[in-house]
Automatic annotation (TrEMBL):
<dbReference type="GO" id="GO:0005886">
    <property type="term" value="C:plasma membrane"/>
</dbReference>
<feature type="transmembrane region" description="Helical">
    <location>
        <begin position="131"/>
        <end position="153"/>
    </location>
</feature>
<dbReference type="InterPro" id="IPR052702">
    <property type="entry name" value="MscS-like_channel"/>
</dbReference>
<keyword id="KW-0812">Transmembrane</keyword>
<feature type="transmembrane region" description="Helical">
    <location>
        <begin position="81"/>
        <end position="106"/>
    </location>
</feature>
<keyword id="KW-1133">Transmembrane helix</keyword>
<comment type="similarity">
    <text>Belongs to the MscS (TC 1.A.23) family.</text>
</comment>
<feature type="transmembrane region" description="Helical">
    <location>
        <begin position="159"/>
        <end position="188"/>
    </location>
</feature>
<dbReference type="InterPro" id="IPR049278">
    <property type="entry name" value="MS_channel_C"/>
</dbReference>
<dbReference type="Pfam" id="PF21082">
    <property type="entry name" value="MS_channel_3rd"/>
</dbReference>
<feature type="transmembrane region" description="Helical">
    <location>
        <begin position="52"/>
        <end position="69"/>
    </location>
</feature>
<dbReference type="InterPro" id="IPR023408">
    <property type="entry name" value="MscS_beta-dom_sf"/>
</dbReference>
<feature type="domain" description="Mechanosensitive ion channel MscS">
    <location>
        <begin position="177"/>
        <end position="244"/>
    </location>
</feature>
<dbReference type="Pfam" id="PF00924">
    <property type="entry name" value="MS_channel_2nd"/>
</dbReference>
<dbReference type="InterPro" id="IPR006685">
    <property type="entry name" value="MscS_channel_2nd"/>
</dbReference>
<dbReference type="InterPro" id="IPR011066">
    <property type="entry name" value="MscS_channel_C_sf"/>
</dbReference>
<keyword id="KW-1003">Cell membrane</keyword>
Amino acid sequence: MLWVLSLAMLSEQYLATLVRQRIVIAVQSIAFLLAVMNLALYLFPSKKIGRLLLYSITPIIALNFFDLLDPITHSLDNYRLSIGGINISLFDVVKLAYIGGILFWFGRESNRVVKQNIRKQQHLDSSTREIIAKLFEVGFITLLIVLLLNVVGVNLTTLAVFGGALGVGLGFGLQSIASNFVSGLIILMDRSLSIGDYIELESGQSGIIRELNLRSITLETFDGKDIVVPNDVFFSQTFTNWTHKNTQQRYSLSFSVAYKTDLDALFPLVIDSLKANPQVLSGPQYSIAEQPDIEIKGFGDNGIDLLVEFWMNAVDDGENRVSADILYSIWKLMNEHGFEFPFPQREVRILP
């Protein structure tokens, strides 16, 4: 910026020679380009933004250096098309495409970089980070649209009146989108859902929240599928959040043994087997209610129904699925110690 200001003050001394004047203008333009690029890269450290500024501003500097910018601008402005009371020139179309392209690419990259930086702020919880990121995205896009309209020369007052009339007409057709948008803001602000929560919907679908948007929430299932759920579903239907406040969950498994089984010998063996599983919570740091347990569930037709209960610090599915391992360990334990599983038995009497 010091180069730009110095060249601006000294440029009057070189007006006598056209070549010197062009050199001063070229150096001043390059200094301004470097200043803008350094500022942009400082605020948004992305190589794409640097290339965008370089490729978009350098042609203008070159045209200005050879005194071609003004003639080209006037030539394009002479080609006009009148539609009613609106006059559109070829220069307006080129200016819209040029500035619109710059704003589009710059907006996309800067939006991505800022959202990444917001989501890295670990002193904020995930819901707060998502709120700030989404509000920044909406505000930034709105600002870009307003800037583009001002560049084109659209009267914002007229646009506001037209937008109000159009909004009334489209409001009935866009009720679902508006409902999802408002629902998304409420979800982000009341922090009822967060990234990483395990959600089970009323329809039976379940998954881990991987993305919170203003329109929908993406659930990732343990088999690698993504379920996109509109935000208003979480206001119109009942859902279960398994891990929002507490990741500890209690699970139970059932199996049966023969009636002749010595339960006093079986129960300690099963509890020791549960404690041996690293996923099952056990130890003096946990309460009695959180310790692994086994009890009689009922008496069936063929054997005694038993219930195994245990706590774990995760959802029993995916990489943390332990139910199959526990059942397998119980099967091995029963075979090693001679316990029997019941099977259907019938007593047949032949009457004379």
